[in-house]
């Protein structure tokens, strides 16, 4: 029997509540029969986590080997094959974005040091909590024992949103669209780029005005749109994207993917940022897709997203070695 | 391509929020490629339902053919293959249980008349909203055009809970336990009965004192325990049980199941109640498992649950033809 150890942080939150049951209902890990699940959250959430554990047990999932809830990060991270970092401090009313970034920098540096201490180099870490790319950057710089390529940040939600919005526009099914790219930061500066998109292996023609004035801003602001309508931020769709992200990393993908990875000079983007790039992903790892033609409009937007990430990196510089 | 039409009521609630994404991530229907999903809820929830639709679209599920949100039950129910009735009025503070039953009787009678008018006799209806058995009873009596056997109420959550609690006690895996029965009402009078339970086809021996003093009350009160710890009632585990219930009805089951069905004199239980009985379920329908030996203790409890359902039926008698 093959068993994997999975840890989820921010386990008492809404995204985790969607993610946990989704993962257990159909494991996204290759050659894996069961998982040991560890749910981490702050001390004040422990009672609610026990209730969550009861609910998980009440599903009688045959994929669950064991479940533990804890507020002790060291115990939680130890021996994890995957750590899904959903937890982050949310922005409170009147809070400056720079303060939010700093508060989370502090959390992610603390957790990074623990991961570096207790985890094996093969541990894979997926960062979801916002600002995801900069949190992942701090994590990456403060875990010298974990290879950079084992730490990725979530961009799949943006890619799924972009696909869905395009599919609706051209009145086609999402699964027939390939090669949708998201460049940059998981924020409103992200750059959904459909210049390479295919519909059943054929090029798609949509007019530039729609792309620039509707498509790109709609994808960039979709998170806000969800909050406006639901009164709550995206949870189940974020969880679904995390599920897809895990699946892609663990099983590889036939299609182009966009994950936040550590840059090393690709496409003239500053090295040492966590940035979403077009990737081929196999079970052996990922390769950046090279030599794509990028038009001036998209190039300008990519530069804006890079600029935002450089600014975020500047804010957290005291958390980087 | 095979497409099924699925309608979910109470779609803006927490159970539906877990259920919708679970269903789309891995369709529980046999020979089905995609679904047309219709989400029904009250007028005041329509804005939030639009946000929910956006989130569903943002998952880029290849299993979704179309999604519609509405407050119009007639449009929602029309041409449905399955109607999952999650919606019900919840108990508010200080409300008498009999008033809650009557309020829901009113809702379910209204919906029944619409189903009877617009649905085909092959439509399958699963009742989840509480009091589920009595709501299902009203539905059953007021839909003469739908065969009784196409209307069932959810008991799978109770069966899953009972399995999980037994598995923990005997330190075994849930999937190795078979033939767990729940008798009666989906309420604190339900009767989890492990007298026929097998562990990998072998009889299980657990002592009667644990069964009577711990096991049965723990299963009966599990819903309350979840609320106590989470501060919220079961949602994801209820959704998981609904998923299992759909799967059982649509694909059949190798194991014994417990669904709420219309009684017709089995085991000396009053005819014409919606009552959980042990069933064999195939793609052709269900058969009550007959001639099980029931000990005096369990028999007494079954009678108490029957008494409760008779009382509920008495409260709603003006809603029954």
Structure report:
The structure is a homodimer of 321-residue chains. With 321 residues, chain A is an alpha/beta fold. Chain A folds into two domains: 151 residues, Rossmann fold, CATH 3.40.50; 160 residues, Lactate dehydrogenase/glycoside hydrolase, family 4, C-terminal (L-2-Hydroxyisocaproate Dehydrogenase, Chain A, domain 2, Alpha-Beta Complex). The first copy, chain A, contains ten helices and 14 strands. In chain A, helix 6 crosses helix 7. Chain A is globular. The interface between A and B is large, with 46 and 46 residues.
Features:
homodimer; alpha/beta; Rossmann fold; 6-stranded parallel sheet; 3-stranded antiparallel sheet; 14 strands; 42% helix
What does this entry show, briefly?
The first copy, chain A, is α/β, with parallel strands linked by helices and 321 residues long. Chain A is built from ten helices and 14 strands.
Describe the secondary-structure layout:
2 copies of one chain form a homodimer.
Chain A (H helix, E strand, L loop, with lengths): L2 E7 L4 H12 L8 E7 L5 H12 L6 E7 L2 H5 L4 E4 L11 H22 L5 E4 L4 H10 L9 E3 L2 H15 L6 E2 L2 E3 L7 E3 L4 E2 L2 E2 L4 H13 L1 H9 L5 H16 L5 E6 L11 E9 L2 E4 L7 H20 L6
Parallel strand pairs in A: 1-2, 1-4, 2-3, 4-5, 5-6
Antiparallel strand pairs in A: 7-10, 8-9, 10-11, 12-13, 13-14
Helix pairs in contact in A: 1-9, 4-5, 6-7
């Amino acid at each position: 029997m093959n068993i994997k150890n999975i840890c989820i942080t921010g386990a008492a939150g809404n995204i985790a509540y969607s993610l946990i049951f989704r993962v257990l209902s159909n494991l996204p890990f290759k050659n894996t029969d069961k998982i040991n699940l560890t749910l981490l959250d702050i001390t004040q959430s422990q009672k609610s986590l026990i209730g969550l554990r009861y609910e998980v047990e009440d599903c009688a999932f045959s994929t669950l080997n064991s479940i533990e809830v804890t507020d002790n990060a060291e115990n939680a991270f130890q021996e994890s094959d995957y750590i899904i970092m959903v937890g982050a401090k949310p922005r409170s009313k009147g809070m400056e974005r720079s303060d939010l970034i700093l508060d989370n920098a502090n959390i992610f540096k603390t957790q990074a040091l623990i991961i570096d201490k207790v985890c094996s180099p093969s541990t894979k870490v997926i960062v979801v909590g916002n600002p995801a790319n900069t949190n992942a950057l701090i994590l990456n710089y403060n875990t010298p024992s974990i290879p950079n390529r084992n730490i990725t940040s979530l961009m799949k939600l943006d890619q799924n949103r972009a696909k869905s919005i395009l599919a609706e526009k051209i009145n086609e099914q999402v699964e027939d669209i390939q090669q949708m790219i998201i460049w940059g930061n998981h924020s409103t500066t992200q750059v959904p780029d459909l210049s390479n998109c295919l519909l059943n292996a054929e090029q798609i023609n949509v007019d530039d005005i729609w792309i620039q004035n509707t498509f790109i801003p709609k994808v960039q602001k979709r998170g806000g749109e969800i909050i406006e309508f639901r009164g709550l931020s995206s949870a189940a769709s974020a969880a679904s994207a995390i599920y897809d992200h895990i699946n892609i990393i663990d099983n590889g993908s036939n299609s182009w993917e966009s994950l936040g990875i550590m840059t090393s000079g690709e496409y003239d983007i500053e090295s040492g940022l966590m940035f979403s790039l077009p990737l081929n992903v196999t079970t052996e790892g990922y390769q950046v897709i090279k030599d794509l033609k990028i038009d001036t409009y998209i190039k300008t937007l990519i530069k804006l997203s890079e600029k935002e990430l450089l600014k975020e990196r500047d804010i957290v510089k005291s958390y980087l070695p």
